[in-house]
Amino acid sequence: MERGKIFSLVGRELIMADPMLNATFGRFQIQERLGAGGVAVVYKALDTQTDETIAIKLLNQTWDEESDMAKRFRREAEITARLQHPHIVPIKELGTLDGRTYSVMEYMKGGSLGQRFHDPARISFQATTKILRQIASALDYAHSQGVVHRDIKLENILLGERGAALSDFGIARLTRAAKVTVTGSIVGTPLYIAPEQARGKANVDHRADLYSLGVLTFLLVVGCFPFNGEDVLAILGQHINAPAPVPSKINAELSSSVDVVLLKALSKPPESRFNSATEFVEALIVAMAQSTLRQTLVNVHITHEFAVTPVPIANTDLPTVKEVGEPFTADQLVEMAKAEADDAEKIAFLRRALDVAPLHSEANRLLFKLEGAKPRQGAVSVPSPVAITPPEAKPLPQFERNTRKARYQERAERQRTWTRIGCVSSLILSLSCTLLTLRLAGLASSVFTALKTASGGPTPVVAVDGEPIQDVQDAPLYVEPEKEVNLSENQTQAIDVLDPGYAHDYRLELYNLNREVAIYVQFLSLSARNVSPNVMIFGPDGRNAESSCLRDSTAILIDNSGVTFNCRVYMVGIWTVRILGVEGESNGAYMVAYAPLGD
User: Fold this and answer.
1) Least confident of 116-125, 307-316, 548-557
2) b/e sequence 395-412, b meaning 16+ C-beta within 10 Å
3) Would you call 590 helix, strand, or coil by DSSP?
4) Domain span at residue 212?
């Protein structure tokens, strides 16, 4: 019998012989073995007190309760318990029972990405985008709390009802071959390890996680690991010394813009990487707009010659830093524009800033001043060596717009009724507060604005380059949002008060491509009369989504104190609804809400 088959059979027999299966551990009924390592074993179990399915991690009996590994096990649970984030697997309980330390976690029924890609499997870039955004938000949150994960990999990303979630903070692993975690001076997993971790540096920071996320992203987008092989020390040496392979040389469906983003993420010096996980992921999504890739065949077992033998940089055909230009932030590009004497150069820098951050209010204001009030559809793209500009969303043909509008008519009537009910109930609640009543009546907006400005808040924007803001086309583009609110499936509406000269952003996470969504903005203010021009919707690419939305200014009330958008989701990701406060037009109390229109 072949050696691999022997190990496979032995592995199954060992799992079948596990004495914990179908046993009772305290109040937990063990049901299934989910995974195991040199530190702990994870089981699916039933909490008989709450009748809830959970995951329970048991420290292996080989580790004494006073051992360093047991202390690390407890430290992981304590750290994770402090991290409250929707995309971090929560620790519900930590304890010791029958001499074994355990932690109780939320059960993630989708398993891990490691299980999903144990054998070669395909994943769409849409699904990859969703996973990466969720893990990036979890990482950035953990980093903001002073926590560095140090072991980002497929096996530590679990899938559940809320999507992807990060697990296993701070535990070293002892497994076989290339996936071993070397205890002692090196902590991490060699396939994903950052160069500074591979060198055994003790004080690695969050940028090590960003490198590991870059490796994970390389795998999901390109289809293989950037560095692989049978020899652990060789893999560590490649992370330290070998240049990362150029993605488009492996997968021809990828553009050179993707090369720039992924190779920056895999930079050897930590200071050359992205500043945050979210910045990296969003840059990748924009870069992918120039690629033809729609799905990737992920094969974790591929070993390429380029990953074993270091390739000289001269042979990669990668543009040099001088040719490409250092990736600047929008703020930096705006400062460069200010420093330029030539207006044409100023405009070029500002347009590049808007390629990076289409909603950058200062860049929009300065460009407005230089170019004048011209109709604009989001950011204007300019040719550059690393231009990463997605294609324009094409307007729907008129007959299609009319057909869709007719189809929505009956449905929209029900939605308007629901909206009126919500508005009326909100108004009644609001009227119970004297302060809010004054603001609803428009009697004290100037007082509140003065107080806000005096307390160090942002200054209201009432004009752009001397032109009254109510006369400026696409005025919401030029005002930095005072407030940003995330809406979700559990919170589909919000009520707030908007003062003149300020803007509020509402962010919607939409991942069902081609789904149609109704978005409502309803003012409760007695003075709101011209809401429609002061509400704009932007897609994940930062562009005005007008061409994908049917705007109906009279759908709620005849005095134009509300506006409804029926939008086709042409791109997955974060959609933004920006509401601008203009004196006598769209200031006061309001409600914003959204609802899917069905498949």
Assistant:
1) 307-316
2) ebeeeeeeeeeeebeeeb
3) strand
4) 113-311
Could you tell me which of 394, 343, 358, 443 has the C-alpha nearest to residue 546? 394
Considering 311, 341, 366, which residue would you say is the last residue of a domain? 311
Instruction: Retrieve residue 536's tokens.
Output: 């704009």
Q: Could you give the CA distance from residue 139 to residue 142 in angstroms, rounded to a whole number?
A: 5
Q: Which residue has the tokens 């360093």?
A: 68
Taking each helix axis as running N to C, give the angle between helix 343-356 and helix 330-339, from 0 to 180 degrees, rounded to the nearest 10: 180
Q: Are residues 204 and 167 in the same domain?
A: yes
Most confident of 159-168, 300-309, 347-356: 159-168
Task: Give the mean model confidence (pLDDT) for residues 427-451.
Answer: 48
Cβ proximity of 131 and 269 under 8 Å: no
Q: Are residues 408 and 555 in the same domain?
A: yes
CA distance from start to end of the chain: 53
Using a cut of 0.90, tell me whether the model's pTM lies above it: no
* Token duo for residue 252: 């021809």
What residues are labeled active site?
151
The C-alpha atoms of residue 353 and residue 357 are separated, in whole angstroms, by 6
Q: Are residues 419 and 339 in the same domain?
A: no
The CATH number that applies at residue 41 is: 3.30.200.20
The amino acid at 325: G
Whether residues 428 and 564 fall in one domain: yes
342, 322 contact by CB (below 8 A):
no
Residues 349 and 438 in one domain: no
Q: Which two tokens stand for residue 285?
A: 């999504």
Say which residues have a Cβ less than 8 Å from residue 463's Cβ, sequence separation at least 6.
469
The residue among 106, 138, 156 that closes a domain is 106
58-67, 300-309, 500-509: segment of lowest average pLDDT = 300-309
Q: What pLDDT is stored for residue 367 in this prediction?
A: 83
